Structures are given as structure tokens and as C-alpha cells.
Amino acid sequence: MLLYTLSRLARALVTVVLIVTLAFIILRMTGDPSIIILGPDAPEQAYEAFRRNWGLDQPLIVQYFKYFGAIAEGDLGRSMRDGRPALDVVMDRVPMTLALTLPALVFNLILGLGAGVFAALNRNTWIDRAIMTVSVVGFTVPSFVMGLVLAMVFAVQLKWLPSGGSGSWAHAILPVISMGMIGAAVIARFTRSAMLEVLGQPYIRTASAKGLSWGAVVLRHALPNAAIPVLTIIGFMVGSLVAGAVVIESIFSWPGLGRLLVGAVANRDLAVVQTILILIGFTMVFANLMVDLAYGWVDPRLRIRTLSTAK
């Protein structure tokens, strides 16, 4: 199990290094932050002083190694807008984003898993067709369209919920549903497919023949064996929720990482943008690492296969 975990940690570390590198290069190819922050009418001496102060006058490779060395020491830089540590600026917004993404993830799992299992157990009935039709709609509609439609119906027309802001729990309902519907639709489709494949296996018929109730067969044998492909989707879903928050927070004026990222990109606040991207990258890597480890827990054969490969 130790070798299995170490192999996954090594892969996660390489992924994070690549994320940091890409974030650094791409951001410095998008424009000169001195012009955005100081304005187009500032004198050339002000631009030069700004670039010198923030190290932007040095060759790109030198900037990269200095930045990477600072990250190794725990320094993610400072905001060019107000001089605060970029990590402090970002962490101030993390609780607000978690207030959306965590409920949205729970919504994804409960609705998606429940609908997928229910559809599989009622295969080729009107219930199955109805659930899959709704799943296709939920999967194909972009999150920003979903958010706008929900805001139009429940905030503008019915006036049941606020259309934006973050003053109370009611403000979070529409953003959470907007973020959760697409994920729930994807999970439902994969859960149904995985359950149908498992339900057709001989050991399911054997368990039924031994006198176990159908509910016990589903809970003890079908669901655990159908969990592995579903775990893969859940791992990707965590990263997509964090990335999707950028759009949803902008639509509903929610003061989280999404709105901060949009503002930081517009202002070319490099350290803040890089810190957010690194945080998102770490979140996605951590989620997929947990999924990899869950594979080994759910199916010990995967651990054995990994150990054999390592040898």
C-alpha cells in the first residue's frame, strides 16, 4: 500500500510542477501588467520603475527560477494592486467559494448517484427514459446558461430567491443548483451504465440464488463493484466545480475565488492569478489522488497490479 501511495504522490507532484510552469508562462504572454495598473498615460520612466520593482525587466527564465524558488520557500508573491501577500488575498475568498462548491458536490452525489441507480433498476421503463432525458439536457446545457435561466425564473419572474449577492443562505441556492445540475447529470449517466454492467454479472445472479434480498444484493454486491468508474467521474467533478465557480460566481455576484480571478486577470495581477491557478491545480490533483487511493481501497487488485509494475 505504501508503494501504491508513493507512486500516486510522485505523479501528483509532477502534475503540480507542470501547472505552475504553464501558469507562469501563459500569464507573462498575455500583456504588460505595468500598462494595465499604471494606465496608458503614465510616463515611460514609471513603467520602467514598475517593471524593475516587480522583477519584470529580467529575462523570463530568470523570473521563472526566482518564482519557483520563492514557491519552494512558501512565498507566492504579492498583489500588484495593494501589496498584500497573494496567498492572503486568495485565502480571504476561499470560504465563500467553499460555501458553494461543497454543497454543490453533495448535491451532485446525492442526486446523480440516486438517479443513476434508480434508472438502472428500472431499465427500459418510462422512469429510466425520463431520468436519462433529463440527464442529457443537464449535461448539454452550459453552466452559465443554467444559471441565467434559473435566475430568470426563480429570481426575476417568481421572485422566490435573490438574483445575486451573498447576504444569506438563500443567495447560495441558485448558484449551488446551477453548479450541481451538470455534475449530477454526468454522474447519473455513468452510474446507470456501471450498474447495468454489474447487474448482468454471474455473481449477482449467484447472490440472488442464495436467498439474499434484492436490496441486499444491490447494496452489498452491485454498488461496490460499480463504484470504480463512478469514482473517476467524481474525481474530475471536484476540479470542474472549482473551475465552474469562475462563471457562476460572476453571474450571481458571489464574492469568491471566481470573481477574484476574473478581476485579477483583467488587472494583470500576476501573483494573485498564479496563486489561484496553483490552488485550483492542487485541488484537482488532490481530488484525483484521493480517487486513486480509493481505487486501491475499493478494489485491492489495483494495489497488487501497481506493486507488480513497480517491481
TrEMBL record:
<feature type="transmembrane region" description="Helical">
    <location>
        <begin position="230"/>
        <end position="252"/>
    </location>
</feature>
<dbReference type="GO" id="GO:0071916">
    <property type="term" value="F:dipeptide transmembrane transporter activity"/>
</dbReference>
<keyword id="KW-1003">Cell membrane</keyword>
<dbReference type="Pfam" id="PF19300">
    <property type="entry name" value="BPD_transp_1_N"/>
</dbReference>
<comment type="similarity">
    <text>Belongs to the binding-protein-dependent transport system permease family.</text>
</comment>
<dbReference type="InterPro" id="IPR035906">
    <property type="entry name" value="MetI-like_sf"/>
</dbReference>
<feature type="transmembrane region" description="Helical">
    <location>
        <begin position="272"/>
        <end position="298"/>
    </location>
</feature>
<keyword id="KW-0813">Transport</keyword>
<dbReference type="GO" id="GO:0005886">
    <property type="term" value="C:plasma membrane"/>
</dbReference>
<keyword id="KW-0472">Membrane</keyword>
<dbReference type="InterPro" id="IPR000515">
    <property type="entry name" value="MetI-like"/>
</dbReference>
<feature type="transmembrane region" description="Helical">
    <location>
        <begin position="12"/>
        <end position="31"/>
    </location>
</feature>
<keyword id="KW-0812">Transmembrane</keyword>
<feature type="transmembrane region" description="Helical">
    <location>
        <begin position="133"/>
        <end position="156"/>
    </location>
</feature>
<dbReference type="Pfam" id="PF00528">
    <property type="entry name" value="BPD_transp_1"/>
</dbReference>
<protein>
    <submittedName>
        <fullName>ABC transporter permease</fullName>
    </submittedName>
</protein>
<dbReference type="InterPro" id="IPR045621">
    <property type="entry name" value="BPD_transp_1_N"/>
</dbReference>
<feature type="transmembrane region" description="Helical">
    <location>
        <begin position="98"/>
        <end position="121"/>
    </location>
</feature>
<keyword id="KW-1133">Transmembrane helix</keyword>
<feature type="domain" description="ABC transmembrane type-1">
    <location>
        <begin position="94"/>
        <end position="295"/>
    </location>
</feature>
<feature type="transmembrane region" description="Helical">
    <location>
        <begin position="168"/>
        <end position="188"/>
    </location>
</feature>
